[in-house]
Amino acid sequence: DIESLNSGSLALGLQPISKSVVLAGEARGGNALGLECVNQTWFVLDTGHWFPEDDEAAHIATRGIHARIENATQSDGNYLPYQFMNDASYDQDVIAHYGAANVQRLRAVQRMYDPKLVFQRLVSGGFKLP
What is the pTM of this model? Predict the structure, then answer.
């Protein structure tokens, strides 16, 4: 619960993405992220707080706000499933939001360039192909 935090801040960032960005990517060879070809606005919630013991409360509060925004966009028919990896939380399944066909394509690229899964195994953190 956000009221349990000793102190902190919450910032909402909006990132407008035009459909011309998606079209430009497709013209250059693909759309591995599975972006829909529509004008869209991505959002990010950034929290800051003083004490490490507040991490879980801040995370839960932020996830609750995120869920309310997603539910509202689903209810009004404006939901887009894409999640921007740079702004995603550690517990979000970012790569699954690229779509099954794109994940399969990324796995094929992985098999070609990293058949021993060096990147998957030796690079700590981050989002990896499932």
Answer: 0.79
If we measure between CA atoms, which residue out of 82, 117, 80, 78 comes closest to residue 96? 82
CA 60, 71, 20, 32 torsion-angle sign: positive
Q: Is 129 helix (H, G, I), strand (E, B) or coil?
A: coil
Q: Would you call 43 exposed, middle or buried from its count of C-beta atoms within 10 A (0-12, 13-18, 19+)?
A: middle
Contacts of 52 (CB under 8 A, 6+ apart): none
Gap between the Cα atoms of 18 and 22, Å rounded: 7
Strand, helix or coil for residue 47:
strand
Residue with tokens 């058949």: 115
Report pLDDT digits (tens) over 54-71: 899 899 999 999 999 999
Q: Could you report the per-residue pLDDT of 16-60, keeping only the tens digit for each? A: 999 999 999 999 988 999 999 999 999 999 988 888 988 998 999
